[in-house]
Amino acid sequence: MQTRGHPNRLGIRGWVAGGRWGFERYLYTLHRLTGLGLLAYFAMHIFVTSARALGPESWDRAMDVVSGPLFAVGEYLVFAAFAFHAVNGVRLALIELGYAVGRPIEPVYPYATSVGRQRRLARAVVMIAAVIALWGGLDFFVLT
Amino acid sequence: MRDRTLWTWHVGAGMVILVLLGLHMAIMHLDATLGIFGTEGAEPVEWESVVARAQSLFFTVTYVLLLGAALYHGIYGLRNILFELNPGAGLRKAINVGLALVGVALFAFGTWAALAAPGAATMGGG
Amino acid sequence: MADPTTRAVTFHLRRFEPDKDREPRWENHQIEVLPGMTVLDGLWKVKEQSAPSLAWRSSCRMGICGSCGMLINGRPRLACNTQIAELNSDVVAVAPLPNFDIIKDLVPDLHSMFATHRELMPYLIRDDTAEQDDPTREYRQTPHELEQYLQFSYCIKCGCCMAACPTVATDPQYAGPMPLGQAHRYNTDTRDAGFTARREVLSGGSGPWRCHFAGECSQVCPKGVDPAKAIQLMKRELVRDLLRMRRHQPCAGVAEAPHGARHEEIPAAPPRTVTEA
């Protein structure tokens, strides 16, 4: 499509901060970041755990590699990322299949939008994810 | 037709991962508080537990399922992000092919690792 | 009657004159504003007093024509619908709607949005074209059926939702909240039988699959159309259709006329002025 004027698309900035945006915009950004992080970890994880097929020494060596301090923190971050991505994913599945957005209404100002309707769900998601992340933190750092 | 179908599988895979990976995370990282791990008190990452899981049909099947679902879900997500950055037509085709190949390759490799008896790939045959 | 108090407000305007500028630039203009002035009123005052070449679109000045969509203090809004007082600031930053090319100053090029809108066939598609061209009676539709799409029919095509959407920000192939919301408006209209026709476009890469519910479109919509809701409801319909679980709705028929007569209140059709291309 030919452009007729000066280009003015926000680009990636629009994913993060195009202006004064709402809570759901940041949940969307965080969902993307955690997804990418989980995917990167997962690719590595397939290789690390495949050491199982190479015998107990190979396995123990792989476990040694992932026992370093970097991995201790890193794996916790993966767990926390999963907690958020999974719980928010449930919210997104409910919304994007049309369940948590409400019915068509007569728009009377101030408008009760679908965003307002799912706001409680969004807040619950953040709280549940935080609780799960903290619970996992117990296992990772406290009760070893 | 394509994007609608791909997206529906993405959501389905997400539901599968929620259950299976949730279980996996609970077993691996919540076992100190939940104590739900199967073998007699050994840590999940110790060799004997690893062997026990490798010999369990339940774990093998769920690992392969989880591998497939997670690879599909994650790679579709990555494709979404890459496509939203507006690559040209040729690059889109390359991304489609490339991601599909990576996905299939990782799935094949992971399934082999899951099905192979532990230690089967060492020189002496374990 | 007491004098209404004026206060000084700075209009921080994004200007771009294609003959002179290579890049858009900011310009400040200070005016005295009275309580009750909208941003549009402020723009007129700026144009009168210090910026005679300032260009923007506006028409009805009452929030119904959809011409004056602009980025005002960081959010896409209608200039005529935004009180300067509600911005709670001494600076009113006005820029053209993002995600559209800038033609001049505050005028965005909405051509791409309307082209996509047209691709999704935003009109009633029925089998009885003879009845559509030369109507005899009204179509039957219950109030409940009307409720299913009425909210989405309030769209004034202002483009604010497109400016707010993070996917539209990066992806020109994505149809965007306005065309998708309007596609749903027609899909759910019981007088329409065009779901299968629109489905072809909607199942592809420009369809609602790139929407991830950031929800900004619904938050900035000046008419409460809630395009985000329309898009999610449409996804449900499309997935149900894929899984062959869609409830088949017969297209609304024409009300029965006594003796098949033409309803006397419907005037005769005027002569055709548009010929088939």
Secondary structure elements and pairings:
The complex is a heterotrimer of chains A (144), B (126) and C (277).
Chain A: H1 13-16, H2 23-49, H3 56-65, H4 69-96, H5 114-117, H6 119-142
Chain B: H1 2-29, H2 31-34, H3 47-54, H4 57-84, H5 89-115
Helix pairs in contact in B: 1-4, 4-5
Chain C: E1 7-15, E2 25-33, H1 39-49, E3 69-72, E4 75-78, E5 91-96, E6 102-104, E7 107-108, H2 111-119, H3 129-133, H4 143-150, H5 160-164, H6 166-170, H7 177-188, H8 195-202, H9 216-220, H10 227-242
Parallel strand pairs in C: 1-5
Antiparallel strand pairs in C: 1-2, 3-4, 3-5, 6-7
Describe this entry's structure for a reader.
The complex is a heterotrimer of chains A (144), B (126) and C (277). With 144 residues, chain A is mostly helical. Chain A contains 6 helices and no strands. The longest helix of chain A is centred in the middle third of the chain and has 28 residues. The mean pLDDT of chain A is 86. Chain B is an all-alpha fold and 126 residues long. Chain B has one domain: 3 helical TM bundles of succinate and fumarate reductases (Up-down Bundle). Helix content of chain B is 75%, strand content 0%. Chain B has 5 helices and no strands. In chain B, helix 1 crosses helix 4 and helix 4 packs antiparallel against helix 5. Chain B is elongated. Chain B starts with a helix and ends in an 11-residue tail after the last helix. The mean pLDDT of chain B is 85. Chain C has 277 residues and is of the alpha+beta class. Chain C folds into 2 domains: 102 residues, Beta-grasp domain (Ubiquitin-like (UB roll)), CATH 3.10.20; 132 residues, Orthogonal Bundle (Fumarate Reductase Iron-sulfur Protein, Chain B, domain 2). In chain C, helix 2 packs parallel to helix 7, helix 4 runs antiparallel to helix 7 and helix 7 crosses helix 10. Classes of the chains: A mainly alpha (144), B mainly alpha (126), C alpha+beta (277). Chains in contact: A-B, A-C, B-C. At the A-C interface, helix 1, helix 2 and helix 4 of A face strand 6, helix 2, helix 4, helix 6 and helix 9 of C.
Which spans of chain C have pLDDT < 50 for at least 5 consecutive residues? none
Distance between the termini of chain C: 64 Å
* Count of DSSP H/I helices of chain B: 5
Under the CATH scheme, which architecture of chain B would be assigned?
Up-down Bundle
Residue fraction in strands of chain C: 5-15%
Helix content of chain B: over 70%
What is the oligomer described by this structure? heterotrimer
Largest chain interface and its two residue counts? A-C, 42 and 58 residues
Q: What shape does the CA trace of chain C take?
A: elongated
Tally the beta strands of chain B: 0
CATH topology of the largest domain in chain C: Fumarate Reductase Iron-sulfur Protein, Chain B, domain 2
What is the gyration radius of chain C calculated from CA atoms?
23 Å
Question: What CATH first level of the largest domain in chain C would be assigned?
Answer: Mainly Alpha
Total number of domains of chain C: 2
> Rounded to an integer, what's the Rg of chain B over CA atoms?
18 Å
